[in-house]
Design brief:
4 helices, two-stranded antiparallel ribbon, elongated, 4 strands, 151 residues, 2 domains, mainly alpha, single chain
């Protein structure tokens, strides 16, 4: 469950406790409904420009969730999309390409068993399915990031 909170750098010290309180409220809400917020699977990421993230390193950017202290990550995955702290989409593109080439190598193993025209159709279907996956996985992103739909 993603929780998004926006603040300016100069507001960081005063707003961070508010964010921690919000996470605590979510945790209490879950407990009242006999659900558990898994602290070990909780992730934290700060989105900002390189300059702002550099200034943020001077501050305590960890977050307390229950008894766990969560350190910020360089990238997180949400709904199949890998987001990095600079919102460059590089981590997502790398993951999609890596997975695509894995499946392409698996397809190559069929060359002794399946005819070339069948392999070509399978490869075409694989490429089209990954293009569709890549485009659909970006539909949940904010509008400015739709410019990256071309993967």
């Amino acid at each position: 469950m993603p929780l998004l909170y926006s603040m300016r750098l100069e507001e960081f010290d005063s707003r961070k406790p508010v964010l921690e309180c919000c996470v605590s409220s979510v945790q209490q809400w879950c407990a009242r409904r006999r659900l558990q917020l898994n602290e070990d699977k909780s992730e934290l990421i700060w989105f900002a420009s390189r300059c702002m993230l550099k200034q943020l390193t001077a501050k305590d950017t960890t977050m307390t969730v229950g008894s766990a202290i969560i350190k910020p990550a360089e990238s997180v995955r949400n709904l199949g999309v890998v987001l990095d702290s600079h919102l460059t989409m590089q981590a997502h593109i790398t993951k999609v390409a890596s997975s695509f080439f894995f499946h392409l190598r698996r397809l190559r193993q069929l060359r002794q068993v399946v005819a070339q025209d069948v392999r070509q159709r399978l490869a075409s279907a694989l490429v089209l399915s990954w293009v569709d996956y890549c485009n659909s996985s970006l539909d949940c992103l904010p509008l400015p990031l739709h410019h990256f739909r071309g993967c």
